């Protein structure tokens, strides 16, 4: 029979406590010390009630779910996308729901690859001059080997995921107060690259770099929440471009098993409300991947290579 005497328990605690306390300390101490550093995390909680929120890519997926979540919290919504019909339908659903919100949602056409009259969107806000929260959510992915992906696909993905968000942000930044927030829907692939997603991974690394630089400039006190999302079951993967530049029209198995749009939207809005600046919206295994990329790069790349061999493109080799 195993020995569970008090002496044995004490001995085991002495043996293993460093392996528990050291990682815990590495997490807890920086979080406690961060309270001493100036920044948006020291501001009061962000209350979305009676705040103007502009969402790009609001017609489907996470953008649509964010609209419902923010509407439920009392925000004045300005919903933008390319599909006017879907935006109109979304606004009607919001107004016809049981959610109590005295601010009627409005919608406008916006192609972030060719944005125009962005300042006119500010006229739709509650006071006609303030966008309290900007949600950069529109996105596009790709599928295919680097050797077969043409530059046209790289440019198209970069236009949506990088240049488009930069132009929208730069145009609206003067109207966003320091008490407001910019939410950026990025990806775990903005931290670690994944095989056969080169254009998408590159664009997400780029947008991470842009907003990290913005944090360090004249708007240090402005909250910028970078959402590094993992797989979400939103239909996003089926719209990814193949090597011919056409949507693949089929969902990844991993995507289909991902978080729901509703759960993801709640997590994002909660993080913004709590003045967080980074949210890894993904399982623990993804966090391990980000850590391993820093700790042991060669091992990480080998694992990614082995993963790529299981992909449909890797199996063709």
UniProtKB/TrEMBL annotation:
It comes from the Eukaryota. The keyword Oxidoreductase applies. GO terms for biological process: lipid metabolic process. The keyword Amino-acid biosynthesis does not apply. Keywords: Membrane, Oxidoreductase, Transmembrane, Transmembrane helix. GO terms for molecular function: oxidoreductase activity. One of its GO terms (cellular component) is membrane. InterPro entries: KR_dom, NAD(P)-bd_dom_sf, Sc_DH/Rdtase_CS, SDR_fam. Residues 51-232 form the Ketoreductase domain. The chain crosses the membrane at residues 16-37. Coiled coil: none annotated. PANTHER family: DEHYDROGENASE/REDUCTASE SDR FAMILY MEMBER 7B, DEHYDROGENASE_REDUCTASE SDR FAMILY MEMBER 7B. Belongs to the short-chain dehydrogenases/reductases (SDR) family. Putative oxidoreductase. This is Ketoreductase domain-containing protein. It comes from Mesorhabditis belari. The lineage of its organism: Eukaryota, Metazoa, Ecdysozoa, Nematoda, Chromadorea.
